[in-house]
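Ticket reopened. Same input as before:
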Amino acid sequence: MTTDILERPSLSQRLKQETESEHLRMHRLMEHGAPFSSRPAYASFVAAQYLFQRDVEHLFNDPAVRSAVPDLDMRGRQEAALADLRDLDQPAPQDVIASEGVAMPEALGWLYVSEGSTLGAAFLFKEAKANLGLSAEFGARNLAAYPEGRAIVWRRFVAALDSEALDSSQHDAIIAGANAAYARFGQLLTRYFGQP
Ligand code: HEM
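Engineering reply: fixed in the latest deploy. New output:
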């Protein structure tokens, strides 16, 4: 019995494993879009990021989400993406909120995709600086680390995911939410950059 419990993967492990193909698909879409090849291409990436962050932050209003992730107020990059668009002289794109009607537990899967993407963003941030001359104060705020640092903030999110307060009967729905969030970001990248 005890062994059974010990061997069961945590929610964070399941999310990583079971959405891996979607993460790889994002790599392929990003490679195809080559957002660091020019400022106009990068501005398209920021527009996709802005719309996705808007979808994610829409979920912050739900009290059940707030209680599952107590430090929500310091998360999210919608404002940063909007400021980057202004730096790049681009208007804010208009779209429906794709996460309308999403609630706990699926909402946590959306947050997972957004928060996890702050890790890969470390690499993207370097490219934005080196190739396009952008920074955490101009144009690349949406890729910059949170003030506390990427790893600490990520570990705290993983602790919320793996908290015992979250019943394991909710895990499948959270993974479905993560897949829906990846589908949305994939759709946005395809809208701006086309299919590979
Ligand atoms: C070319 C673009 C990308 C690169 C190079 C990249 C790279 C990475 C890397 C290296 C990690 C692992 C970091 C670590 O464990 O310390 C990671 C994690 C992650 N990335 Fe990406 N990423 C990219 C795009 C994206 C996009 C577009 C999304 C979602 C919108 C995304 C979502 C995630 C998630 C959710 C994780 C956490 C995985 C986990 O540990 O559970 N990534 N990424």
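Residues 15-16, 23, 26-27, 30, 112-113, 116-117, 119-120, 123, 185 surround protoporphyrin IX containing FE (CB under 6 Å). The chain has a mean pLDDT of 96. Please confirm and we'll close it.
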